[in-house]
Specification:
The chain is of the alpha/beta class. It folds into two domains: 65 residues; 206 residues, Vaccinia Virus protein VP39 (Rossmann fold), CATH 3.40.50. The chain has a seven-stranded mixed beta sheet with strand order 5-4-3-6-7-9-8. A two-stranded antiparallel ribbon has the order 1-2. The protein is elongated and about 70 Å long. 28% of the residues are buried.
Length: 287
């Protein structure tokens, strides 16, 4: 039988080393391509998997599903889009470059960032989304990227209601936000994660303190992942004091993690648990 190789080790050596690492860490690496699964282990649409493969970075490009959605839905007529929390206008610039038929308005609570939008030629609004004075049903699309995790309760539900108030009937409300992960609170102003289930519950579960003022339908739900990685043996491990074991195994783990990065770069497998999402909702006529 041919001596199959993975990097510089044979497939048999790889499998043996893998079992050692699993034993040391007390973990099992599933062999299912994670990028085909959602957070509950259910299989995802293969088209969504293809979107994940559209870039070659070591993390999912969450711009990709939004840009593809805009390409499919918004290529016929002229549309108005509100960019909530526009920041440095990074995404607004992408829209401007790719979609000349979309008029983008940038809203940011930070006056300095709002000034950047003005200098770039965008319509700009320097207001808090929860206290804005924009007329209802003003936009075909409201896009909110990495904003809601900076809000507490009840500000979060006020913001959701306001953004949908600004969305035209049959228009789209797009939310991007991180999920809980080991680095979530590395941003000092992150208050808490809001998974898509929490957003949807707000609009559908009448037993909550408050429920959404609008009827929405899920147009698309996409999860962001990263390469699966084995954790190095550190001071929290019982094996840390066994230096003759720790050093060679850590070397092997580093090598395997590099192999996993290369595999994930090409196939999105093996991947980590979801660490963020894109939720696209369609606002119903009936409210």
């Amino acid at each position: 039988m041919a001596n199959l190789q993975i990097g510089r080790i044979s497939i048999w050596e790889y499998l043996m080393l893998k079992m050692v690492i699993i034993t040391v860490q007390g973990k099992v690496l599933p062999w299912i391509p994670f990028s085909y699964l959602n957070r509950n282990g259910m299989f995802m649409n293969k088209e969504r998997h293809k979107i994940n493969l559209a870039n070659s970075e070591f993390h999912d490009n969450e711009d990709a599903p939004v840009l593809e959605f805009l390409e499919k839905k918004m290529k016929v007529s002229n549309f108005k889009l509100l960019e909530v929390g526009s920041g440095l206008c990074r995404f607004a610039d992408k829209i401007k470059l790719k979609h000349s038929n979309i008029e983008c308005t940038c809203l940011d609570i930070n006056s300095n960032l709002s000034e950047i939008a003005r200098k770039k030629g965008y319509r700009h609004i320097n207001e808090d989304i929860t206290k804005n004075k924009i007329p209802s049903n003003s936009f075909d699309i409201v896009h909110c990227s990495h904003v809601i995790e900076h809000l507490g309760y009840p500000e979060i539900v006020i913001a959701l209601d306001e953004m949908l108030r600004l969305t035209k009937p049959e228009g789209y409300f797009i939310i991007r936000s991180p999920l809980m992960s080991s680095v979530f609170y590395d941003d000092i102003d992150h208050i808490r994660p809001y998974p898509p289930e929490a957003i949807l519950n707000y609009f559908t579960n009448i037993q909550q303190q408050r429920t959404g003022k609008n009827i929405v339908n899920i147009e698309q739900l996409w999860f962001r992942t990263a390469p699966k990685k084995f954790r190095l043996i550190d001071k929290s491990s019982l094996f840390y004091i066994l230096i003759y074991l720790r050093i060679p195994i850590n070397h092997i783990i580093i090598m395997l993690n590099k192999q996993f990065e290369e595999l994930w770069k090409k196939f999105r497998f093996p991947s980590s648990e979801a660490n963020g999402y894109v939720l696209i909702l369609k606002k119903s006529h009936s409210n």
